[in-house]
Amino acid sequence: MIAVAGYASVLIALGASIKLVWDGWRAGRGAGNATAVRRDATVLFAAATASFVLLELAILTHDFSIEYVASNTATTTPFVFLLASGWAALEGSIVLWGFVLAGFTYLVARNLGDTDGLGTMAAAILGLVAVFWFGMMATVSDPFGVCTETLGGQCVASSVNPFAAAVAPAEGVGPNPLLQNHILMAVHPPMLYLGYVGMTVPFAFAIAALIRGDQGSAWLERTHRWTLIAWVFLTFGILLGAWWSYEVLGWGGYWAWDPVENAAFLPWLVGTAFIHSAVVQRRRGMLQAWNLILVIATFSLTIFGTFLTRSGTIFSVHSFTQSPIGPALLGFLGVIVVGSLALFAWRAHLVASSPRLDSLASREGVFLANNLLLALFAFTVLLGTLYPLLLEAFAGREVSVGRPFYDRATVPIAFALLLAMGVGPVTPYRVARGSVVWERTRTALIVALCAGAATVLLRVWSVAVVIVVSLAAFVIATILRHLGQRIAARRRSAGESYGAAFVGLVTREPGFWGGQLSHLGLALAAVAIATTSVLSTSEEVRIDVGQAAVVDGYCFVYEGLFTNPEPHRTVTGVDIRLYREDCSSEIGLMQPSVNRYPNATQPVGTPAVRTGLIDDVYLTITSGDANRVGLEILIFPFMWLLWVGGLLMVAGGFWAFVMRRRAPAAADPVEAVTAGDA
Amino acid sequence: MPDAVRRFLRVLVPAVAVAIIIAGLWPQPSVAPSAAERVDTLASNIRCPFCGGESIADAPSQIARDLEAIIAEQVAEGRTDDEVYAFFEARYGESALMDPPLLGWGWVLWVGPLVLLAVGGYAIARRRRRTGTPVVVGGSPLLERRRIEDQLAQIAVDLGELDGQVAAGEIDDATRFDLAAAYEAEAAPLRDRLAVLERPPATTADPSPTPTGPDRRRALIGAGAMLAGVAVVSFAVVRMADDGRDAIEVPTPPPIDFENVTVDELENVVARNPEIVGMRLALAQLYMQEGDVSQAVVHFGEVLERERNPEALAWLGYISFQVGELDSARNYLTEALTRQPNYPQAEWWLANLLYYGYQEPAEAVPHLETLLAAPDLPADIRAEAEAMLEAAGGTG
């Protein structure tokens, strides 16, 4: 029953998106109005919501006649993980994606003016993306496929036809143990998807601007807030992913240059470049064509990322199965890239701005450097991700590209970016005299050198750490000095108090100060990345029960083994009492554990993490019984800076998003575009 | 604080800081890395097979710990780093090295970003104001007018902001004069064109200028290059999918009858049900029958990722034996026997390994005896085992 209703909702959504393309296209060419577009988008949103809700309903009612439910949930799965199963596996994630896309499309359509040619054309592009997405749900990635064959109590064959004779296994397989080991799995994918799908909106407006060939930078103004919120979600999603990897996966890292991590990082890099170069276009009317390229690239990379994540081309914790969705996504990616670039080549001269850079030594010049560096960063990561694929396909050789390559290739780029981040925000537009820039950065340079010297005095001998600490101090000091100067100026001119001057400044220039907050966060995160990758230590110890081991200034006492049977798993953990080096002043109890799930014979380890101001103590079990435990002890200096820095980045983007007023949906001044284009 | 003191401190503080940094980071006389450091470096540069792409140092699994122990052993034996890399490359293939050497296609990884840096830097460096070129290209008169108005508005904003910049001390008067002149020069042809466009429609019928050549050509070349790139990547991925991972191709799984299924069919079923170990084992054994050992190893490894299955362990032991990796063969077979004592296949292979591989017939004796105690042993193996036992001097 749910299968029939669910499949019907998918088909309705597919129909509504086809209609949306048609109506949007007509309205965008001046032959219709926005009323039909709004109606189509509403139907699309309603149907997509229905499909999402019905899938959740099927999961919560344990309808194992639906293959997705039988293969990804079980009756013993706790409620939260049942909910999360709605998007944790392949078909469900596509449903969530479609739901978010429909929601964004609805929001865009709701704000359309009646003769809004650009907006309706953009709605048509959004509809086109929705056609692909719901088309996939109706065919190769059907979340409501009914189970038609079981083997050993597991569903092994399914049919797209919702009326097919269904067989329901008595019990489902349950979620992937790694995914049900931590609640974060319920939050991390939706955040990333909000970011990924959010990038569809700027893309749709950019393509609409190209098709219509008019309106200058209207597309940019109207999608500015969309880009910001998509970036905020993407950043938050990546941050949560890193945190999940650190807290749950238990290998003691937060970033492995896994192809799937790269898949989320690539659109982030290019999207970040876009946010910066959009400033140049808004302020100086430059780089219009380049911005179009960046938007197209960002969106293409989100599809590429989905392809990497979901097609099973690369083995990873994120790719659950191999399925026909791979070629479909690859085909869609091809259509997007080929179509957008062909359109760009054909029409870009209509929207391109003229080159009017006054001098390379200027804010514009630093923005260009930022774009070059971010593009280079993205290209390097893309190259490292694709290289093994290409080599295997063409030379038949299986190679891997790992951390050593990425570290060596991206660390210099990151240094240069930090430097640009310090200098850029205080460099004047148009022409920057050396004396002006020197005056504005001199104090920060002294602070940076002192920070570097202090790091050395703290007996840190790593060149990389000293450089990063100095650069980060430079960035932060420049920002704070600039803030101080601006506040002082406001106090002089308006006689405000410090607080009023600060609030007035950051609310009147939310884009700039939100950006600076993000820069500050990134500087802190950079310090954490340097300290945790260079200065962390790792040691393997074995401790008898009641005995102590002293490692890196901490004392670990093994107090015993415990076992907690839970409905969906069995947790076996050890009690480790943590003391300072003297083994008498207690810090706390740590309980690393090993969790066994009935649907997997390989247990999942969960680390215990003790976060401190100076360093994190990170424990995983390597072996053990009631008498003796083997522990891997990792120490990560200043780990918390990464999370705080990441959250500041998110907060900065969010501030800019919230405080910037929405650009009004301008009524279309060009009435007969069709005639004009001919 | 007097000005002189301030000025002095402004020089002194950074100078001292620089001195401290330089003194602290001055290259130390290079100390040979300790054995533990070498093991760490090696382990983080070698990929752990069957660990989902993580290095031996990063991967949390038991296999990774075992491999780490092997590295430590080799370092203790005095092998050089290159010898250790070569060992792992020979054992697990080129993909064991996480840092592709600068050989063959490896240079692409290094030259690619540098080429982009050079091209991008060049493009930015020559991205100056172009004067004398037509600013406006193509589009309907209506659109063109709008665009010109936008540009004039931008120029007006630019001119207005100059005053603020002079007031803030960002630019001096001479620069301001130059910039204002440049903006005026930019605006002049735009105003002329606008005047033409604003005449009655009859005269504006003059066709708008065609797109400027270089811009368009460059856009086409760029688009073409990127298309080629996408084509290459698509081709690569599709081809890779064909190369033994045809799972993507066939959507409907066949009824399951392990006797008669083809590799492709079974591969498809396994891909759809990656967690069902039994089917994966069957697939791996099918690959063994077909002689495709490398595919078989992949699937046996996948099985081990999910559980320490004795059958998979035994087969991996057999394969290791066949390729001459005696120590790892022994580890696999021993583990298979600890997990499933008296497992005939593992006993038989372990006996063979000890007898022929290690040339230690005496050690093979207990395994041969256990094997012969099994009532349902195939006759040919029983005969062979008895012959071996006799030759080893055991009790027949």
Helix and strand layout, with pairings?
The complex is a heterodimer of chains A (678) and B (396).
Chain A: H1 2-28, H2 34-60, H3 67-72, H4 79-88, H5 90-110, H6 117-138, E1 146-151, E2 154-159, H7 188-198, H8 200-212, H9 218-249, H10 259-284, H11 288-310, H12 325-351, H13 363-394, H14 403-423, H15 434-457, H16 463-494, H17 498-508, H18 510-534, E3 537-544, E4 548-551, E5 554-566, E6 569-580, E7 586-590, E8 593-596, E9 604-606, E10 608-611, E11 615-624, E12 628-637, H19 640-659, H20 673-677
Antiparallel strand pairs in A: 1-2, 3-12, 4-5, 5-6, 6-7, 6-8, 8-9, 10-11, 11-12
Helix pairs in contact in A: 1-2, 1-6, 2-4, 2-5, 4-5, 5-6, 5-7, 6-8, 7-9, 8-9, 8-11, 8-12, 9-10, 9-19, 10-11, 10-13, 11-12, 13-14, 14-16, 15-16, 16-17, 16-18, 17-18, 18-19
Chain B: H1 3-25, H2 35-45, H3 62-76, H4 81-92, H5 106-125, H6 141-167, H7 173-198, H8 201-204, H9 213-242, H10 263-272, H11 277-290, H12 293-306, H13 310-322, H14 326-339, H15 344-357, H16 361-373, H17 379-392
Helix pairs in contact in B: 2-3, 6-7, 10-11, 11-12, 12-13, 13-14, 13-15, 14-15, 15-16, 16-17
What tags apply to this protein structure?
A: 678 residues; alpha+beta; 4 domains; four-stranded antiparallel β-sheet; 20 helices; 12 strands; B: 396 residues; Helicase, Ruva Protein, domain 3; Serine Threonine Protein Phosphatase 5, Tetratricopeptide repeat; 17 helices; 69% helix; elongated
